[in-house]
Amino acid sequence: MIQPRPLTVDHTSDRRGTLLTLCGELDYEATGCVQEALRHVRLSAGERLVLDLSAVTFCDSNGVTLLVGAHRTARAQDADLAVTGLLPPVAKVLRITGLDTVLAVYGTPEEAFADVP
Amino acid sequence: MMPRYDGGHSVIPHGTTHRTLSCLRDTLMQLTEELRLPADLRARLLHSVSAVAAAELDAGRQVSLQVAAEPAADGGPPQLVFHLHTPFAPRAPALAGLPLPAERLGGELTIWRVPSQPAAAASGGLCAQSAIPVQAEGSARPASVVEQLEQELRAARERADRLAAEHERLSRELSETNSGVLALYVQLEERDEQLRSAHGRVLRELEDALRPPPVQVAGLEMAVHYAPADPHAPTGGDLYDWFELPDGTIHITVVDALGHGVTSTRGALDVTHAVRTLALEGHPLGSIVARTDEILLPLDQELMSTVLLARIDPADGRVAVANGSHPPPLIVRTDGGTALIEARGRGIGYPLAGSEDVLHERLLPGDLLVLYTDGLTESRRDPIEGEARLKACAAELRHHPIEEIPGALAARLHTRILHADDTVALAVRRTDSGPAPRRGHPDQADRRTHPDQGESP
Q1: Contact at 8 Å (CB) between A89 and A111?
Q2: Strands B79-85 and B103-105, how do they pair?
Q3: Using the beta-carbon criterion (under 8 Å), do B351 and A68 form an inter-chain contact?
Q4: Which Pfam families does the protein's record reference (chain B) (predicted)?
Q5: What is the dihedral sign for C-alpha B253, B254, B259, B265?
Q6: Range list for CATH 3.30.565 in chain B
């Protein structure tokens, strides 16, 4: 059993947008960390905010709220949000909440940036 | 004969040297009689001096006794100071446990200080006494040894009686105090209990107001289990509602508003009430989630809530489900088969809020419909495993009395909680005694004896 560990966020800029690499569990404890990272995201119109979730093992309703917050952050800057590398539990939550039809979902950040609309 | 020690005192009115204990005791008794020491004090002094001197005298080494008057440090009546000099003792005598505590001045000198007695001072005091050996003076005949011992015994007995009486009084006071404290505790405990029960009653009434009891309708039986994540908060963000629509169908709402505790209850209440109003107004099931979002979001930009809507027709078991981001309800057939009703859609406050479609199912007599919040399936932080365990547990419990099923589901799925969350579990079973089919079958009573129905409760 993997012990719950605090989520970390790595922030990198791409010429086509911003990549946030999340690692850990996307739950209530992750809220402050993710919100802080989102506050520093600066996007130009038409760019993409990509959240790489390939190292996120769990996402509850608080995590879903954070994803919706990221979606709003991107939309407020005329950009869009993509998520990448969904593990089965996270994919399950996105399907239940219907977010998989709102967010662009890709295998890797490279694919997500290559497909910027 | 006079010891070297003068202790800084100008007058040394008594000084004797002794080789035997009896001699020392006689001298002391005579001295203390003349100095009018009270019997109790006299006995204590005699015992103490004898105890310190005994080892020396037994060993054949002589000791000296001196008595001096010394002004009290605080300006009160002068003190009498008894000095016992043991110049040949190989080591300083032990002073612990003496009936009259002593002080040691150097290795050879032990002293006892006692208050001088007014009677002695009035008759001229120590300074007026002649030097060694002490002689009885005045008209008063000195008390005999037996008389002195009787005085001491009487003093000791009086003291013992006094102490016994005091002890009894204190014991009685202590016991009265204890029983008073005990009564106070009982009183406080009773008041606490009254407050607790009043508090609990208010909370239960509040909870009842928030969570309606199961709808009583022929053809369906229903039960619910509700547990907030925080046992000290009466409600959380999970809430449900169920009521009968004018057309006789039963409407059920389950919501999970963001956050925990009573503050998230407000969002959950807003959603259930908006849904109830829209449903009673006759809005189509598929439009209610989106419409609720449109109504509520202008009031509360922060509101985020999943919402699941189910409609059940008690007459024929038809079920319609609309959804906004909520975990899918589960159908458990009488044979143990399970199926999730996975209507797609997004909840209140989500992007593109609204149910994408309305899914239809049909409950046969004995079939169960289980609605729940993610607190039921995510206690082990794995929604996939949680859903599988829910199916298995619900199938096992399908023939249990309806009132037992929601609580038993929560108990079985929460055997190990890694993730505490509000939990709602709600079960509806279609019974085989529904309202008369609208087409009209005269044989409804016979259906109970049909072999296929034998397993139904």
Answers
A1: no
A2: unpaired
A3: yes
A4: SpoIIE (PF07228)
A5: positive
A6: 14-142
Confidence of residue B232 (pLDDT cuts 50, 70, 90): low
Domain boundaries defined on chain A: 8-114
CB contact under 8 A, A89 and B324: no
At A36-95, the pLDDT tens digits run 999 999 999 999 999 999 999 999 988 999 999 999 999 999 999 999 999 999 999 999
Question: What's the rounded Cα separation, in Å, for the pair B67 and B27?
Answer: 11
Quote the minimal CA–CA distance from B379 to chain A in Å: 10
pTM above 0.90, yes or no: no
Question: B242: distance to nearest CA of chain A, Å?
Answer: 22
Give the Å distances, CA to CA, from B357 to A91, B33, B251, B310, B313: 21, 117, 17, 12, 19
Dump pLDDT digits (tens) for B337-365: 999 999 999 999 999 999 999 999 999 99
What pLDDT score was predicted for residue A5? 65
Size of interface A-B (CB pairs under 8 A): 66
Beta strand B220-227 pairing with B79-85:
unpaired
Taking CB atoms and an 8 Å limit, are A102 and B350 in contact across chains?
Answer: yes
CATH 3.60.40.10 at B217-453, yes or no: yes
Give the number of other CB atoms < 10 A from CB of residue A18. Answer: 23
- For range B8-30, the mean pLDDT: 78
Q: What CATH code is assigned to B14-142?
A: 3.30.565
Please state the φ and ψ torsions of residue B200, each to the nearest 5 degrees. Answer: -60, -40
Question: Strand B330-332 and strand B368-372: pairing?
Answer: antiparallel
Nearest residue in A to B353, CA atom: A98
* Rounded-to-integer distance, Cα B62 and Cα B383, Å: 98
Q: Provide the CATH number for the domain formed by A8-114 in this structure.
A: 3.30.750.24
